[in-house]
Amino acid sequence: MDDQNKNLILATALSFIVILIWFVLFPPPEQAPGLTNAEGEVVAQDDTALRDEMSPDGAIDGTAAGTPVATLEQDAPVEAARVAIETPRLVGSINTAGGRIDDLKLTAYHETLDPDSPLVRLLSPGGEEAQYYALHGWIALSGASADEVPGDSTVWEIEEGETLTPDSPVVLRWENGAGLVFRKTIAVDDNYLFTVTQSVENTTGDAVELRPYGQVRRHGLPDSRQFFILHEGVVRMADGELEEIDYDDLPDLTAEESRIEVAEDGWVGFTDKYWMTTLVPASGTPFRSVAREVNGIYLTESIYPPVAVAAGETVSAESHVFAGAKEWETIRAYEAAGIDRFVDSIDWGWFFFLTKPIFALLHWLNGVIGNMGWSIIVLTLIIKAVLFPLAYKSYASMAKMKELQPEMEKLKERAGDDRQALQKGMMELYKTNKVNPASGCLPILLQIPIFFSLYKVIFVTLELRHAPWIGWIRDLSAPDPSSILNLFGLLPWDTPDPGSIFFIFSLGVLPILLGISMWLQQKLNPAPPDPTQRMIFAWMPWVFMFMLGSFASGLVIYWIANNMITFTQQYLIMRSHGYKPDILGNIRGKGAAAAKK
After folding, report:
1. Its principal location (predicted)?
2. Nearest residue to 292 via CA among 266, 320, 257, 262
3. pLDDT for 249-283, tens place per residue?
4. What is the CATH T-level fold of the domain 82-341, as seen in this structure?
5. Could you tell me which of 1, 8, 4 has the C-alpha nearest to residue 400?
6. Residue 519 DSSP one-character state
7. What is the pTM of this model?
8. Domain boundaries, the chain
9. Which pick of 106, 137, 274, 409 has the fewest CB atoms within 10 Å?
């Protein structure tokens, strides 16, 4: 077997590894225990007085061990007034029972491509779906009992404001009847950031000590598929250290593992593929970051140092909640405003040093071109241009090896069965003609992390969700919707659903073009004389065609463009070195016949 065929086999093996790694997906998650009824339907859990205590040894403020942290209650929903939320990006309401932000939809995003489909719901109150909400409160430490601070179901009075807008905050008020007056001022900006200012006025004759906190609670697991390459669950930053915790791992965390003492900057919350709800303390504020699971309820907490409220004094504490879409520009603007490393809430993956600049370039190209599909093609051209020096060296080496083929055949005849003499002669031949047989592998090796990174970008970034290209390609984050099974829409029947085992045979136009582009690229060289190699290479384009048929259209567009650019580069470089590929002859099989002869 000559070195060129070794390189081709290596390329095949590496390519298969790339596809197989990313093709393995986790099955849909099971519902958390206790959150389904007999028919398997999700039922909302609302509060019944369950107090969960941890032992915060080593608390950030030196509080004695055994101090209770934020309470977790589950009782029947309380009928209470609601405060409407209306912003350019959000609609919903705040429940005055508990002062929860528990009803939130994103006005810029629909569930499907149909503009009449429902808006994406981010936060949900009890009684509709599995609950998902943010709340803030106080922990009584001294001078007041737990019953004298507002709880999860405390009904607040609307003191100021009727509708929460970017120009009109809302003030909620609750008096405990024992001399403490609590207020909660909620404001929101034009995007997705809420500012919550909690205050307590002490009209008693004694000092009290309280501890403010914020929580995001999720009752049960989200109704989404879990993917091998995507993190969904807890995401938190603690003094520059990013941590991601899957939902399945939360019940197994010890108290020490679930709690992090943050000295200055950080945030904690839940992330989905495209959306996120995160507690963001004010910059420079120390806090305890907690992530845990209690009876099927997943929660994240930010617990702040205790505050002493003297008699006749009013004390306030400010924090933020991000609840919205993980838009790169929006999150980056919040990061520039002081939220430490907030852009890392997007799951950039292991190759973050590639995915970040690749997405930044793709985003810029889309701003110039105005179409993500064409931007992906231009991005491919740029990547190929950057790698061109290596590609040139590789293809030039392959062309020289073609020229040396007659001499190598003579060398094989002279060496016979003497493998050592053959290897020595081949090395001398390479050295004399300044040919490096391994140079063809380097572009392939570099292409693998680039492929990983681009796939990650296309899969996880919101900017490609529902992004159209041309004609029937209306969502670059989804597979090609056309299908050969109904002649691409000419026949009056539907194609298999993506969850069906037969979906792999429902090839669209793009996967077929991908197979053709790989097959055409192969025809730059004659088929290898070895029957096994010849069979592998003959089947490889069509196997890849089926394997990539269910991949995102944006990724398939990239691969097609990459194949065609590679074909053009290789053809021109070979011609410049005096070797003219006989493409038509190779298609007709003349090359294989000559090689066999």
Report:
1. membrane
2. 257
3. 999 999 889 999 999 999 999 999 999 999 999 98
4. Beta-galactosidase; Chain A, domain 5 (2.70.98)
5. 4
6. H
7. 0.80
8. 82-341, 356-596
9. 409
